[in-house]
Write a structure and sequence with these properties.
Layout (H helix, E strand, L loop, with lengths): L1 H28 L3 H18 L1 H10 L3 H4 L14 H10 L6 H32 L5 H11 L8 H11 L6 H7 L3 H14 L2 H9 L4 H12 L1 H16 L15 H9 L6 H33 L3
Helix pairs in contact: 3-15, 5-15, 6-9, 6-10, 6-13, 6-14, 7-10, 10-15, 11-12, 13-15, 14-15
């Protein structure tokens, strides 16, 4: 009985020592209450500063004309009004094509291209991560190197390619260049490397699943956070896309072009321009609300900070 009790006491004493060691480690490596206060305060101030442009855009859309002309600009509104929003229909009726056409172009391009962008990026990442094709390391290195190039340096070669393919002044000038993405392939591959076990792929092959079925029914569900994050980034960029030097037809231009047209009408129309901008914020914000839980997990798993 004494031997049993002594062993129990020894185990109890060991647990107490372990708890004390953990408590000392916690005290040693954590901040003080003052440090936690200033750290939290810094994060709050930085967060408020980051949303300042959005806040200024929203309050400006509710300013009457006399407050729009005040200099320096104020970050508050004294007499809020919906005049800017109510004036939009009459302004947009004067555009070369109906507003519905601009909206359709933006929605069509954003939805279709985002789907193709995610599908192609995920498929390329699957091939580079879970197959044994020759030279895949070299291909992935080239993809990583392409991240260093600025898109503006490629404008002239792109125009020559679009012209030779007959893509000028067509939807393809929006869609095709946005489908391949070095960033998308890199993000998806990093996530597949850590979240899709090779044993799972081998088990699917043993069960008779083909490459496409393995990719669609096994790999894609396991990397859902990654492709939701890629969907957010892709939709955000495509929703804000404007026609460059490849689109000249008014019927193919997008909603951001209509917003910029209003913004160029002078300071008296800044309220209307901000109102259009606020309306255009809504779809990306909705997409973000759907995908926000996946962003942090994807960034931590992919090694992107």
């Amino acid at each position: 009985m004494q031997a049993t009790m002594s062993k129990a006491d020894a185990r109890r004493l060991k647990k107490l020592k372990l708890k004390a060691a953990r408590r000392d480690q916690y005290k040693r490596f954590t901040r003080s209450k003052g440090g936690n206060f200033f750290y939290t305060l810094f994060l709050i101030l930085f967060g408020l500063f980051s949303i300042l442009p959005m806040y200024y855009c929203i309050i400006t859309s509710f300013k009457p004309l006399d407050e729009l002309l005040v200099f320096p600009p104020r970050f508050y509104v004294i007499s809020p009004t919906f005049a800017s929003y109510l004036t939009l229909p009459s302004l947009l009726d004067n555009l070369a094509v109906p507003l519905s056409r601009y909206a359709f172009n933006s929605i069509f391009i954003s939805v279709v291209t985002t789907f193709l962008h995610v599908l192609v990026g995920s498929a390329a990442a699957y091939v580079l991560s879970k197959t044994n094709i020759p030279g895949k390391k070299i291909i992935f290195t080239i993809i990583q190197m392409s991240l260093l190039y600025n898109a503006y340096t490629l404008e002239i070669p792109r125009y020559l390619i679009y012209s030779s393919l007959g893509m000028i002044d067509t939807y393809w000038a929006y869609i095709l260049p946005a489908i391949p993405s070095s960033m998308g392939v890199f993000l998806m591959k990093q996530f597949m490397d850590t979240n899709v076990p090779d044993a799972l792929i081998e088990a699917a092959k043993i069960d008779g699943a083909g490459s496409f079925r393995t990719f669609w029914q096994i790999a894609m569900p396991n990397v859902k956070p990654a492709w939701l994050t890629l969907t957010l980034f892709s939709f955000r960029d495509l929703w804000a896309i404007q026609p460059g030097g490849t689109i000249f037809s008014e019927e193919l231009k997008t909603l951001p072009f209509a917003a910029s047209t209003i913004a160029q009408s002078g300071i008296a129309r800044q309220g209307c321009a901000m109102a259009v901008t606020v309306i255009m914020m809504i779809p990306p914000i909705l997409v973000y609300l759907v995908t926000q839980r996946s962003v942090t997990q994807t960034m931590s798993s992919s090694g992107i900070k």
